């Protein structure tokens, strides 16, 4: 059993993305990778706070980093791209911008808490968590129920790798993640037995915040993501962000209803797929909690 | 459908966006491509255009792969992948004309790209 690392689920994983939270915890338990949830964590500032007052967002994310440090952790893992992005942005701003440090110190003092010291805690995504802890080979050795060549398009969304300057550890050559053509999810799912399809829209815009409203623009963008995945031969789009996932699910339904464009590609979190490959049941990884229904598809492939 | 026509369509889409914003497309290329120069120009006008940076690069990547494809089947497959990226770029540009700030709330978040934001580049 490894040492536990700090787990920052974020707001979405308590709401629309609860299947992602359930499957992340289940996969961690199955792999012997314990998680310790941050105590009294707060919203990361998401997109809304950042666009109104970016330094307030920096404080909110810095507070979560400070909690991780006070709990004795050197690493915090966030499965949500938005949370992960904002933790990385806070670290970047506190390292490079005196005004951000001053704002965080002032707000921390006002709230009677210590200010986070940059460089104390490393922020990683759930993809990095599993890849660093086990690697593809370590994961492959633990697979009990292979995905048996399930054809998958890996969709990373935009906030996992953009903007590049807040991810200094990426684009460092072999072994590091790429910001233009990410591959960590591809590697993990291949180790679990999937066949990754070449998908040219891995990081393409899905309409962002508009995805959560009834925007025709978002529906058109998502519909193109879905139809492109199908044309690439994918049976499943694997996601690693609750906002991307919700957007794909909602606009898949809306494209059928409003535009009469039906797509059949399934949408599953990568942790749900890994969990199934590790021998967990569909119920244990929350498949029934997804908005789109993949149960018949999975049953037909021998997953209980 | 050829690589040239796909590139030209992508360039036309960004030129149309620039024209709609009263900006004349600048001549020139970035890394040997007019599309990347036009994208950079649009991103200077509206940072949310950074949200389609990788789509532009993917389009060029697939066209380049098509140009060195070993056979006609692979050539056609690469062009089809390029077309998917081109379609997405066109949808993004069209969406940006309809919905101000498309992309702004996510990866191209405005505060990351405004003058008062911390953004030293290494």
Gist of the model:
The complex is a heterodimer of chains A (304) and B (122). Chain A is an alpha/beta fold and 304 residues long.
What does this protein look like?
- The complex is a heterodimer of chains A (304) and B (122).
- Chain A has 304 residues and is of the alpha/beta class.
- Helix content of chain A is 45%, strand content 10%.
- Chain A has two domains: 5-124, Up-down Bundle (Glutathione S-transferase Yfyf (Class Pi), Chain A, domain 2); 144-300, Rossmann fold (3-Layer(aba) Sandwich).
- In chain A, the strands form two sheets. Chain A has a four-stranded parallel sheet. A four-stranded parallel sheet of chain A has the order 6-5-7-8, sandwiched between helices.
- The relative contact order of chain A is 0.14.
- Chain B has one domain (3-112).
- Chain A binds chain B through residues 47-48, 50-51, 54, 57, 85, 89, 92-93, 96-97, 99-100, 158-159, 162-163, 165-166, 168, 179-181, 198, 200-201, 203-205, 207-210, 215-218, 220-221, 224-225, 228, 231-232, and chain B through 50-55, 57-59, 62, 80-82, 84-85, 87-88, 91-92, 94-95, 98-99, 102-113, 117-122.
- Supply the number of helical segments of chain A: 11
Strand composition percent of chain B: under 5%
Outline of chain B = globular
Q: What is the arithmetic mean of pLDDT of chain B?
A: 89
Q: How does the overall form of chain A come out from the CA principal axes?
A: globular
What's the helix count of chain B? 4
The span between the termini of chain B is 40 Å
Uncertain runs of chain B: 118-122
Counted beta strands of chain A:
8
Helix content of chain B: 55-70%
């Amino acid at each position: 059993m490894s040492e536990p690392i700090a787990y920052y689920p974020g707001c979405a994983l308590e709401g629309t993305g609860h299947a992602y939270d359930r499957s992340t915890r289940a996969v961690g338990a199955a792999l012997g990778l314990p998680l310790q949830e941050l105590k009294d964590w707060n919203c990361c500032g998401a997109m809304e706070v950042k666009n109104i007052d970016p330094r307030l967002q920096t404080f909110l994310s810095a507070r979560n980093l400070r909690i991780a440090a006070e709990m004795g952790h050197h690493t915090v893992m966030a499965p949500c791209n938005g949370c992960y992005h904002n933790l990385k942005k806070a670290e970047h701003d506190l390292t490079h911008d005196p005004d951000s440090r001053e704002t965080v110190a002032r707000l921390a003092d006002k709230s009677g808490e210590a200010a986070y010291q940059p460089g104390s805690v490393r922020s990683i995504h759930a993809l990095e968590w599993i890849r660093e802890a086990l690697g593809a080979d370590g994961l492959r050795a633990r697979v009990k129920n292979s995905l048996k060549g399930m054809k998958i398009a890996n969709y990373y969304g935009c906030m996992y790798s953009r903007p590049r300057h807040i991810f200094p550890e990426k684009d460092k050559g072999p072994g590091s993640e790429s910001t233009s053509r990410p591959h960590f999810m591809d590697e993990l799912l291949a180790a679990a037995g999937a066949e990754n399809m070449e998908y040219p829209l891995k990081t393409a815009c899905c309409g962002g915040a508009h995805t959560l409203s009834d925007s025709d623009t978002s529906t058109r963008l998502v519909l193109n993501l879905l139809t492109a995945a199908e044309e690439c031969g994918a049976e499943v789009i694997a996601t690693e962000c609750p906002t991307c996932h919700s957007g794909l699910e909602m606009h898949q339904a809306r494209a059928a209803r409003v535009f009469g464009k039906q797509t059949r590609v399934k949408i599953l979190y990568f942790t749900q797929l890994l969990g199934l490959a590790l021998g967990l049941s569909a119920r244990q990884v929350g498949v029934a909690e997804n908005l789109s229904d993949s149960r018949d598809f999975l049953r037909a492939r021998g997953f209980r | 459908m050829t690589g040239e026509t796909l590139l030209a369509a992508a360039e036309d889409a960004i030129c149309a966006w620039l024209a709609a914003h009263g900006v004349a497309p600048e001549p020139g290329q970035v890394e040997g491509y007019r599309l990347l120069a036009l994208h950079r120009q649009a991103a200077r006008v509206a940072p949310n255009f950074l949200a389609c940076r990788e789509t532009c690069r993917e389009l060029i990547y697939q066209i380049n792969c098509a140009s060195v494809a070993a056979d006609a089947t692979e050539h056609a497959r690469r062009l089809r992948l390029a077309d998917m990226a081109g379609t997405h770029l066109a949808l993004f540009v069209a969406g940006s004309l309809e919905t101000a700030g498309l992309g702004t709330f996510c990866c191209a978040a405005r505060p990351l790209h405004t003058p008062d934001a911390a953004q030293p580049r290494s």
